[in-house]
Amino acid sequence: MKKIRLKYVDWWDGFQPEQYRFHQILTKHFDIEISDEPDYIIASVYSDEAKSYNCVRILYTGENICPDFNIYDYAIGFEYLEFGDRYIRIPNFIMNPAYDIDIQKALSKHLLSADDIKREKKFCSFVVSNGNAAPIREKMFEELNKYKRVDSGGRYLNNIGRPEGVRDKFAFQSEHKFSLTFENSAHLGYTTEKLLQGFSAGTIPIYWGDPAVENCFNPKAFINISGNNVYDAIELVKEVDTQDDLYFSMLREPAFLNNDYQTKLLEKLDNFLVHIFNQPLECAYRRNSFEHISNKSVLNEFVKEDRGRFSQWISNKARCFYGKRKNK
Fold it and tell me: Where are the domains of the chain?
């Protein structure tokens, strides 16, 4: 196995890399050494340490943040974009194995039993701990409450007498017909675990967020209010709530457009990471340390001061380029 000196930087306190897909994939293919003198780093967005490492930089973001490819050589994120071998789109519920159980439950949620149909449920759930989000989320909660009570089980807007929040989100959501599954913000491609967990609990999710969410999830299985106003959405919720045939027809719809969605993305992620680390180290760099200097006089001065580093950079570029041509 090829030995890789790797470090994780800019993660939250308590981060454990072995719990994430990238580390699991890398340890399957390579001999990983966690090092303070790394040849590669895998960074997140919770600090700014990555820029201090002059090595191959790989960004993973589970937040609504677009990668800066002037800083990072490669990135994994939410954006729909094509950038050669430098980027892959993987939603956070695919990256984190903790959501595997939600995916499995969502994949079978439409296989209703007779008991599922007979079971009495409350109206709608809402589980949020962070109040810092787009105003439409709170407005929807307040306006829908005027129709029927929405049970808020999170720490934010809690109305069930448990200010610390429910311990079991899945169990709480599954007691309800609907679940409010709003993203904190709306951006193309930014689909988190919220909609998935609404499906896994056997509810009809009421979703707002990613305008392209229907690229992945079945639009017949949830109420997508992205692009609609709150009041139109509430009228649609009322219609589904009062018409049992419509309600159960939505429950019987599969959550995903393709049941192999997770499998295909994990195959792509495996190929993406193996490609990065299988290259000779000097060929794995993609960010350009010099081309961002547009002023020629500044560049000339820079080259004089660090001629050795500049020559090595040119040499590496040439070696990788001609090596690729030779192998074709």
Answer: 1-93+261-291, 109-253, 294-322
Global pTM reads: 0.86
Q: Sheet harboring 87-89: ordered strands across?
A: 31-34, 3-9, 40-43, 56-60, 74-77, 87-89
Alpha carbons 48 and 252: distance in angstroms, whole number: 46
CA trace torsion 90, 93, 95, 99 (10° rounding) = -160
CATH superfamily, domain at 1-93+261-291: Glycosyl transferase family 10, N-terminal domain (3.40.50.11650)
109-253: CATH topology is Rossmann fold (3.40.50)
Contact present, 223 and 233 (Cβ < 8 Å): yes
In the structure encoding, which two tokens stand for residue 112, read together? 């209703």
pLDDT in tens, 246-255: 999 999 999 9
